[in-house]
Design a protein that fits this description.
By secondary structure, this protein is an alpha/beta fold. The chain contains eight helices and nine strands. It is globular.
């Protein structure tokens, strides 16, 4: 049963060591993510499932303890998913993608020790119906399930954005913010996959997993943060 969800952006720049001198520019986003994780802890889950963007189609499972790092950004910083709990076997296989590494960093920063953690990666090509089905499967697990949903909105909000300026980006992001604030699973499920890809949206598939998981939950949404620093849309919200 899904009891709570937190939606957080996951750019590596959220990590102060990566952002360096620009770190203060995302202080408000970091604070919102901390508040969102606090809502998850307050829900007393039996398990936390972290859903985020992945390079493949997915779903790709990342067991508790999976390692990640920010060495690709020139920062000597390693993380592990739910490492503080130490309750599950040492995993093998590939490292966490950068979005998941940010999620692991957020959990470590807030001292998450409230429930075991599992990561599930979903790619930008995963169809909406498969995302919804995955979400339903997660919500149907035994016990109290919480979701940490990672992903960014469009990367095309300004001329200097990674995807350059696209006039469709701001309306797309506004609809995402509205849907997350209202816990509108229908609107999230209806997000246009092709448009999301064109706008370089990494959060589309994770948000649609959330929509599937929350179909019968009657959770209420609260929007904690919405902005577009560096021309990229970042949104933080809670459903509880």
């Amino acid at each position: 049963m899904l009891v709570a969800a937190a939606v957080c952006p996951c750019p590596p720049l959220l990590v102060p060591e990566v952002a360096a001198g620009a770190a203060p520019e995302l202080d408000a986003a970091r604070a919102a993510c901390t508040d969102a994780l606090g809502v998850l802890a307050a829900a007393r889950p039996d398990r936390l499932v972290v859903v985020g963007p992945d390079d493949g189609t997915g779903p790709e499972v990342y067991p508790q303890g999976t390692r990640g790092s920010f060495r690709g950004f020139g920062v000597d910083l390693d993380v592990r998913l739910g490492a503080d709990l130490g309750t599950e076997a040492e995993p093998t296989g590939r490292e966490l993608p950068y979005g998941f590494a940010v999620g692991a960093w957020l959990l470590g920063r807030t001292g998450w020790a409230d429930a075991p953690v599992e990561g599930i990666g979903v790619g930008e090509a995963l169809p909406a119906d498969r995302c919804a089905a995955l979400g339903r499967d997660i919500a149907a697990r035994a016990g109290r399930i919480a979701l940490l949903v990672l992903g960014d909105a469009s990367a095309c909000r300004t001329l200097k954005a990674p995807g350059y300026l696209d006039e469709r980006a701001a309306p797309f992001d506004a609809e995402v913010g509205r849907a997350l604030a209202a816990a509108d699973v229908t609107a999230l499920a209806a997000l246009d996959i092709a448009l999301a890809r064109e706008l370089k949206v990494s959060g589309r598939a994770p948000w649609q997993v959330l929509a599937g998981a929350a179909e019968d939950s009657a959770l209420a949404g609260v929007l904690l943060y919405e902005d577009a620093p560096y021309g990229v849309g970042y949104v933080a919200a809670t459903w509880s």
